[in-house]
Amino acid sequence: MAAIVVMLVWSLLLASSLHGSHATTPANKTLGSSLTSGANSSWPSPSGDFAFGFYPVADGYFLLGIWFDKIPEKTLVWSHNRNTPAPIQSTVNLTLDGQFVLIYPNGTEDRINNGEAASSASMQDDGNFVLRNSFSTVLWQSFSSPTDTILPGQTLNMGQRLYSNANGNMDHSTGRFMLELQNFDGNMVLSAYRFADRGYWYTGTINDKIVRLVFNQSSSFMYLVNETATIYSMTNNVPRPINDYYHRATIEDSGNFQQYIYPKQNGSKWESVWKAITEPCFVNAVCGVYGFCTSPDNQTARCDCLEGFSPLDPSNPSKGCSPQAPIERCEEYDPMNYKVVVLNDSDFLNDVFTDLERIHNSDLESCMKALHEDCYTIAATFNNTDCLTKRMPFLNARHSLPSTKIIKALIKVPTGTNREKSGGKKISRSHFLLQVGISMSSLLALLFAAIAIYYHPAVQRYRSRKPSPNADTMEISLRTFSFQELSEATNGFSNSLGRGAFGTVYGGVLCLEDKQIEIAVKKLEKVIEQGEKEFMTEVRVIGQTHHKNLVRLLGFCNDGSHRLLVYDLMKNGSLSSFLFKEEERPSWDHRVEILLGIARGLLYLHEECETQIIHCDIKPQNVLLDNHNTAKIADFGLAKLLMKDQTRTSTNIRGTMGYMAPEWLKNAPVTAKVDIYSFGVLLLEIICCRRHIELNRIEEESDGDDLILTDWVISCVRLGKLEMVVKYDTEVLSNYKRFERMAMVGLWCVHPDPILRPSMKKVIQMLEGTIEVGVPPLVYAQTFEDRHYCTSEM
Fold this sequence. Notes:
By secondary structure, this protein is of the alpha+beta class. The protein folds into four domains: 1-145, Bulb-type lectin domain (Agglutinin, subunit A), CATH 2.90.10; 282-414, no CATH class; 471-568, 2-Layer Sandwich (Phosphorylase Kinase, domain 1); 575-779, Transferase(Phosphotransferase), domain 1 (Orthogonal Bundle), CATH 1.10.510.10. It starts with a helix and ends in a 26-residue tail after the last helix. It is found in: Membrane. Residues 1-23 form the signal peptide.
């Protein structure tokens, strides 16, 4: 009841504010005319069907806009300041020098027209607000800069876009969805543009030089035309007579584009006469990250959170959800902290950006196991024969329509039940005591055994010998070490520095040539079965690399089943630890220096060393910093130790989630371009100083669209607001042009098509400014991997 009362009061406030004192106001406004928000708030069209002025929104703020003024539901069709509502006592003035200006109470001015002096302004009966000069020539019109709606008589030209609202009539700011008549091919596309241009509907009108969307005023039909003919029809039935109805076409916060009518006499609501999407849950990202879409009436999308997830914004479920328990990174992944939930008659829209691996001839149990054990995956679709896994975070989970196939959605849910708040695992007291007892007994047994072995005469004779270099050692200028030597140097491998995809790294000290040097020893795991010769061949390739930006290999151990590599110790740790500190942000100049160092190291591996090396796992954890904070790439060449044929992918070595190039997931040939893709993601992380994906990112100003860094950067570039990515980094903003150039390089690198990614040499040239950086194709292009999801009308 209270909510109903609030809505009635708000409706009365809206009606009184909009009607204001415009009843006797003439249609044409001369120089010096003005409106003030909260007072004389609007100028009507001659018929009174439309009004221009200050449209009240929440919290006492106003949008300078145009709305249908004769109907109870004052439907907004255009606004100038949708993202910056004006407070009360703001004014809009047609100044004496012919400028149309919105002035905020603090004196800030927002010029609306293009600067050419106007003589008059008028609100027309077709819903178009127009500025004219003394010759009645139109200088500016609202029809030329639409927001989310077009009206009869209005056209949409190539390159123009409509953007949805963020949340219906509650929030008119720019939302997640876009309708664009693409400038480069004439195709009209609906896309979830804030999620890396995930297009979900298109007209297919490509390769036409001039295309326009026409909303015909006499017939109220919408269609696309080229220079000579109609090439795509939308509306095919509108009630007659046309003039008995109001008409509009709007892209909605649900992602659909619909044409509506409203009876002028005794009308009560807007009725749809045409829609682009007939199945609401087929809209990409309609329920945001981790959201689940259902549509019981097949008219509207309902967004919910699945088990183990909570809404980012309870007042707006379409913003998506967040895991209730933390999702671990792969370095910390423990399957015991997750469970797999199976949803019947549910699936995910296919998505080239999140699809990971298709497992053929699978059963449900195998699909669940693959999902549960793989840290890279968060969800899967099972259709009774195939299992398609998806990376984090998932989008487009939905209740599927009836089908002849049995479709199930599998969701991996972090339980949090196996972890204390401190991060430790929960175990019972009796179980804990039992584990302690077993561990102490084992340690004592090992201690006595170690003492006996240490003092055995054979071991003492062995220890007295110094290792002698062999032919292989001399040939590749590396030193061979026994397993015993490295065990002693690392104090029994007790000082773990970290664990990665190739094994665990331990710190230690070696005495070489009467000098003590600090070393990092990597114990290789999951090394493929190969002979001495093959192992030495791969080590030889690594040993022959010498570059300022590569970690230096000092030696190796090939002792029985033990395979270890010995490197210089990088005392300042990984780039990940350096870059993502919570307390402070590394300086911009230092970040640029690190970025260029990584690029030069990769160029050496790809083009300058004797044998080309494809790293296959470029990420911040595999870039280390020396005493002078110089960036050095680690783990290069190790992919060959786990994979005999580096020209093909393997589930055992496929990079790291978020840095993996799409070709890894398609069993396509792997080239150096996989490193270019990973470098592009790393580049954006470095210049933006944030992780490529922040799974638990919940901020007051975030609606979930910035969870994935690459997607966020693309959407900001498309909006012309790239500075939003680094709005809190004043040092970067003062070097904005350089930042912008580097961001564009990053987007070139992460293009899904490896052919369009630049070489490492060209990347460096673009970063250094020696060659121009064009606009990346991702800024314009749409991806349509699954065109069968579009409506049958196409």
